Amino acid sequence: YHPDYHPNHKKPYTTKELAYICKYYGFGKVKGIALSLGRTETTIRQLVNVLRKNGMFEKYKAMGE
């Protein structure tokens, strides 16, 4: 974690961010998603796991299309 690279660390996710993460997760590296949103790679991975367990991943993925 570095405050210059992760300015949104511990802030709540917006619907737009969730849609972006679900749309691009699995294409390329998580590092790119994390840097573009100002989050850490670990939090992106953890969020995706939680969304998949709750059945929300596909819902947000459809929003991003």
TrEMBL record:
<protein>
    <submittedName>
        <fullName>DNA-entry nuclease</fullName>
    </submittedName>
</protein>
